[in-house]
């Protein structure tokens, strides 16, 4: 009976909950989710930011239900999943063009695609690829969008590695640092995840503010 019960518990995982994913699959689940969210369009709904932060926190033993992860394997899984996923998404975009996005019925996915294209046009390829890592949904669709729009493979690879490492390792280590310094920090996990999501949008908001100021200054000079 033990094996069937374990299998049933695995199938009952809530894929929208970082804690549920980590309790069921541990470090391996982090790598798989990172790959799916950044490389496969069907993964746009997965909780990337909160998963990384929560996983880092659980490395300190501060989590509920006795879940404890090891930091070194977690960092490797997070980085490899995020980098391999983005590269896979880019290659799919180069081969399939915009067909994958054009046939999608998801409103969120189409909106994300529009925002991704705007990022590429407004900030240039390098900056957009890095910034997209910090915006949910956009980090899913920008990779195939970059492939479909003909972003050079070398440019994409260099900057997706930079953005991917800063995003995946930064959030994971942030959760670990907070869990190490604050006792019973898991009690405040939901508010902290909300803060992480807001903070993740700051780079894009800052760039948008700068670009608008530059545009206004140009109009005044013109």
How is this structure best described in words?
The protein is mostly helical. Helix content is 77%, strand content 0%. The protein has eleven helices and no strands. The protein has helices at residues 2-11, 18-39, 48-58, 71-96, 99-102, 107-123, 125-132, 138-148, 153-181, 189-200, 202-221. Helix 2 runs parallel beside helix 4 (71-96), helix 3 (48-58) crosses helix 9 and helix 7 (125-132) packs parallel to helix 9. The longest helix is centred in the C-terminal third of the chain and has 29 residues, at 153-181. The N and C termini lie far apart (77 Å). Mean pLDDT is 78; it is low at 1-11.
Morphology call: globular
Compute the average pLDDT: 78
Instruction: Measure the end-to-end span.
Output: 77 Å
Q: What would you call the quaternary organization?
A: single chain
Helix fraction by DSSP (H/I, runs of at least 4): over 70%
Using only C-alpha atoms, the radius of gyration works out to 19 Å
Number of strands: 0
Number of helices: 11
Q: What would you call the structural class?
A: mainly alpha
Strand content: under 5%
Largest sheet: none
Spans where pLDDT lies below 50 across 5 or more residues: 1-11
> How do the helices and strands follow one another from N- to C-terminus?
HHHHHHHHHHH
């Amino acid at each position: 009976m033990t094996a069937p019960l374990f299998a049933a518990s695995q199938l009952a995982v809530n894929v929208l909950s970082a804690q549920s994913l980590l309790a069921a699959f541990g470090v391996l689940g982090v790598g798989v989710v990172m790959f799916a969210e950044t490389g496969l369009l069907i993964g746009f709904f997965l909780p990337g930011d909160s998963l990384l932060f929560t996983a880092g926190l659980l490395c300190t033993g501060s989590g509920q239900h006795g879940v404890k992860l090891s930091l070194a394997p977690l960092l490797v899984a997070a980085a490899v999943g995020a980098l391999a996923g983005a590269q896979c998404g880019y290659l799919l975009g180069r081969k399939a063009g915009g067909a994958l996005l054009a046939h999608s019925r998801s409103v969120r996915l189409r909106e994300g695609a529009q925002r991704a294209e705007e990022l590429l046009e407004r900030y240039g390829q390098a900056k957009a690829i890095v910034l997209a890592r910090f915006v949910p949904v956009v980090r899913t669709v920008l990779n195939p969008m970059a492939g479909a729009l003909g972003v050079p493979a070398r440019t994409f690879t260099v900057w997706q590695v930079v953005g991917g490492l800063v995003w995946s390792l930064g959030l994971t280590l942030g959760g670990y640092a907070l869990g190490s310094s604050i006792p019973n920090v898991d009690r405040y996990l939901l508010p902290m995840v909300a803060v992480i999501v807001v903070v993740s949008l700051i780079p894009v908001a800052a760039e948008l503010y700068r670009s608008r100021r530059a545009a206004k200054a140009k109009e005044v000079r013109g």
